[in-house]
Amino acid sequence: MNNKQETQSSAPRRGNPLTGILWVVLIVLFLNGFVFPLFSPGRITTTDYGTFIERVDSGLVQEVMIKNGQIFFTARTDKGKTATFRTGAVDDPHLVDRLLDAKSPNENGKIAFTQIVPQENSPILNFILMWILPGMIFFLLWRQAGKSLQARMGGGGNFLSFGNSGARIYADSDVKTTFADVAGQDEAKEALTEIVDFLHSPEKYARIGASLPKGALLVGPPGTGKTLIARAVAGEARVPFFAMSGSEFVQMFVGMGAAKVRDLFKQAGEKAPCIIFIDEIDAIGKRRDTAFGGNDEREQTLNQLLTEMDGFDGRKGVVILAATNRPETLDKALLRPGRFDRRIQMELPDLEGRKAILQVHLAQVKHEAVDLSIVAQATAGSSGAELANIVNEAALRAVRQGRQRVTTSDLEESVETVLAGAQKKHAVLSLDEKRIVAYHEIGHALVAAMQTASAPVHKITIIPRTSGALGYTMQVDEGEQVLLSRENLFNRIATLAGGRSAEELVFKSITTGASNDIEQATKLARAMVTRFGMSDKYDMMGLETVNNAYLGGDNSLTCSSETAAQIDNEVLRIVKEAHEKARGILSGNREILDEAAAYLLQRETITGEEFMRIVRKHTAGA
Ligand code: ADP
Ligand code: MG
Ligand code: ZN
């Protein structure tokens, strides 16, 4: 996602002029009050009041100054010099008389004496000093602290005002992506074309009084192009594109996310017609639940979003798109009419779709004439993102091998790299182990070849992969099979059992090499019983539901625990039956098994064609 966001203060500002002035004022006050008196000229000796009176009476004092409850006086010392003394003022009513009467070394024979009345500040100055100045200092310090905190947290905005987040959300007003960049997904494009048209000419719709759906929710597995198609809508309509991810709204302080939502809609309102896109909306749109107290910040943000969606005029030309791969977790309120009432399904691409996606991405790299159909066939179940990755891996492989153009073999190898991991060049397998792996793989291939309703073998290899696979048999369906029959599924399980069966038959012992086969076979058999109603025992009873369908899908049983135990028995029955079938096929075709395994052991990688030649040689003669 490519959204640009500007925060008002990217770093705490150091040289705020106002704070500078304040500091100067503070320093001056401080120096005035505490420091300057210390630097008064001459050294002052502290004495007691008695000494002072004594000096006065003996006519040695020249000058007296009373200030702030202290008496400063200069007097001749015994050595004939003049020194300054200080003593505390005592409440002495006779002091003035005494000073007037006393003799002095001054020329007029009188002591010069004054009292300095502490100067009262004007009330206004006092008020400023006591109330306003500290207030301002506090305010500025708080703001500074807030700003640096904000900058550190990476959030935008003003710490003091919760009214708006202060974040300037930049609209991308020049989106280059168009529908041409999105291959396949024709239904989604069709649904979105209307929105594009609406953004082009909102008046047309306004004239008749129609308001388009305010929001459309893009739903589908990861990597199917949801983010891509949302950008494409903006590119097609040539309108500004405000894009944010749901998680960007979830902030540290309660209320900040809501403020961001408010801001987003305000800014979008000013730029209408435009598109607001909220990616991964499940981050804020999760169902509000009361059972566990919930998350205050997230709920406030969601509430704000709901309010904004209700609040703005649908005819103005702001369209809200959102994407998620967990639609079932969304709050019902989001999905009701007037909000995200359109739901646009993005599915994993079918054969044609995969070909088209490969073409779109291949157009961006230099390539020779390549046969895409075989790559498309081999990538059943892959998402657009995975296909884009496969093309890129192929280009990287071409570069690695110092070639200028991508070839078909680059693509085929990169399919295997993406699906099974890279080749392990230096894996050390003993010859015995290699023999076992070769028989295991040919076991799979042969069982597949001997069954009618199973996909043809495309490639068999015993070069280990980084994923841990010691070898694999690649089966590629020619067409796209949408409906799978019970026979199809059962044959698949038998094919999966073929590897282990070959080991048993040839080596009379079994290895750990079948663990992945076992896992897959069990999963299939279980699904047949619990979800597809393919067991006689449970008929059409649904025993399991799938949660999170777009993210792998975890199953949860919906039956009693007694039934669960019986399901296990049923699954076991199917797996055993399939294993039996595989063993039967292999022992009936032992010569083919031996010959093909020897051939594979020698070549390490063989094509489906080479394998079928061996098979045909034997079956044609029979
Ligand atoms: P999602 O948001 O659904 O998880 P994205 O839109 O981010 O998926 O897709 C990731 C990448 O996969 C895209 O950038 C694009 O390169 C590629 N891709 C996915 N679907 C398609 C498609 N239908 N056509 C072309 N490229 C696609
Ligand atoms: Mg996305
Ligand atoms: Zn296997």
Residue-averaged pLDDT, rounded? Answer: 82
CATH superfamily of the largest domain: Peptidase M41
Q: How would you sum up the global shape?
A: elongated
Provide the gyration radius in Å.
44 Å
Question: How would you sum up the major sheet?
Answer: 5 strands, mixed
Fraction of residues in H or I helices: 40-55%
Bound molecules: adenosine-5'-diphosphate, magnesium ion, zinc ion
User: If helices are DSSP runs of H or I spanning 4 or more residues, what is the number of helices?
Assistant: 22
Give the DSSP E fraction (strand runs of 2 or more residues).
5-15%
Question: In terms of topology, how is this protein built?
Answer:
Blueprint: E1 4-6, H1 17-35, E2 44-46, H2 49-57, E3 61-67, E4 70-76, E5 82-88, H3 95-101, E6 112-116, H4 123-153, E7 168-170, H5 186-200, H6 202-208, E8 215-219, H7 226-237, E9 241-245, H8 246-249, H9 256-271, E10 274-279, H10 282-285, H11 296-311, E11 318-324, H12 332-335, E12 342-345, H13 351-362, H14 372-378, H15 384-400, H16 408-420, H17 431-450, E13 457-461, E14 472-475, H18 486-507, H19 515-530, E15 544-547, E16 554-557, H20 561-588, H21 590-603, E17 605-607, H22 608-621
Parallel strand pairs: 2-5, 3-6, 8-11, 8-12, 9-10, 10-11
Antiparallel strand pairs: 1-7, 3-4, 4-5, 13-14, 13-17, 15-16
The structure holds adenosine-5'-diphosphate, magnesium ion and zinc ion.
